[in-house]
Structure formats: C-alpha cells, structure tokens
Write a structure and sequence with these properties.
161 residues, alpha+beta, Arc Repressor Mutant, subunit A, Glutaredoxin, 2 domains, disordered N terminus, binds FE2/S2 (inorganic) cluster
C-alpha cells in the first residue's frame, strides 16, 4: 500500500515549487510568498523551507524564523473547519476551561491538533472582543456565545448521531 502522507507531501512540494519560481531572488517577497503558498496549498510544508530559501537567496534559518514568528502562518495541514476556544479572562471566569475540555473530548484532539479526518483544527485564542457572550467558541468566522455542555454537543454532533 502506498504511503499516503508521503504522496501528499510530494504533491504539495511540486505545487510549492511552481509558486516559489514566480519570486526568484526577490528577498522582500518572503511574507507574501509564504501567504500565497498557504492560500494555495493550505499550509507551508516544512520541506518547502529550503526551496523558498534557495529561490529567494536567503538562509533556510531566516525563512524558518519568519514562518515561526507569524502565528498566521501554518506548517501543518489544517482541518476544513477551525475551532477556536476563547481563553480570555471573561470566558475563563464563565467556564471557558470546561468548554475547552469538552471540545477536546468531542474532537479527540488537543490544542493545535487536527482531527484525523481533517475536519477540525482546534486552537485557543485570547479575548475575541465579545466578552458579554462569554464563554465563546468560534468556528471558522462564526461566534458561538454563551456556550455550555449541551451547546458543545450540538455544535459537533454529526449527522445521524
Ligand atoms: S474573554 Fe472571551 S471574548 Fe473576551
């Protein structure tokens, strides 16, 4: 049986090379290039760091440093939906910790991880600015306020469950 993860990585890298070629020797373009790779591939495969560095005329450590610095740049594939549980003070005081625990249980992943079916990536965030609705969970761009155990269950209930 073929190694599926390897096949995926190879496809991603070919796609990365195509994108990177457009920016040859344009050192200034590291961030826009990284964003473009992420937009088109879904993340920045770690194997692409030397390719990016060589094409832009930078050291791999410089490329890695920039990618690691920006939280919005991802080096792992992400799920179709991103779930963000608020860890701000208001949400924490109103049970955010329990909500996070329940979300982890429902998804079966820890923070920063993606479910094996690539459906959800779980993250935590600082205050998202709607403290009045605490505790909050954001799924993609939609805020789900006043969360409680029942709402967590409803949020992740799969069809047929
Ligand atoms: S603390 Fe969660 S929205 Fe402000």
């Amino acid at each position: 049986m073929a190694d599926k993860s390897k096949a995926v990585a190879e496809v991603d890298l070919a796609q990365v090379k195509q994108i990177v070629d457009e920016y040859s020797q344009q050192r200034w373009a590291l961030i826009p290039l990284a964003q473009k790779i992420q937009n088109e591939v879904g993340y920045i495969p770690p194997q692409s760091v030397p390719v990016i560095a060589k094409t832009l005329g930078l050291f791999p450590s410089q490329v890695q440093g920039v990618i690691s610095f920006y939280e919005q740049l991802y080096t792992k594939p992400r799920g179709r939906h991103v779930v963000r549980v608020c860890r701000g003070t208001a949400c924490h005081v109103r049970g955010g910790k329990t909500i996070l625990k329940l979300v982890k249980q429902h998804l079966g992943v820890e923070e920063g991880e993606t479910t094996p079916d690539m459906e959800y990536t779980l993250e935590t965030v600082a205050c998202i600015g709607v403290c009045a609705l605490a505790p909050n969970v954001v799924v993609d761009d939609r805020v789900h306020g006043r969360m409680n155990p029942k709402k967590v269950e409803q949020l992740f209930r799969k069809n047929g469950d």
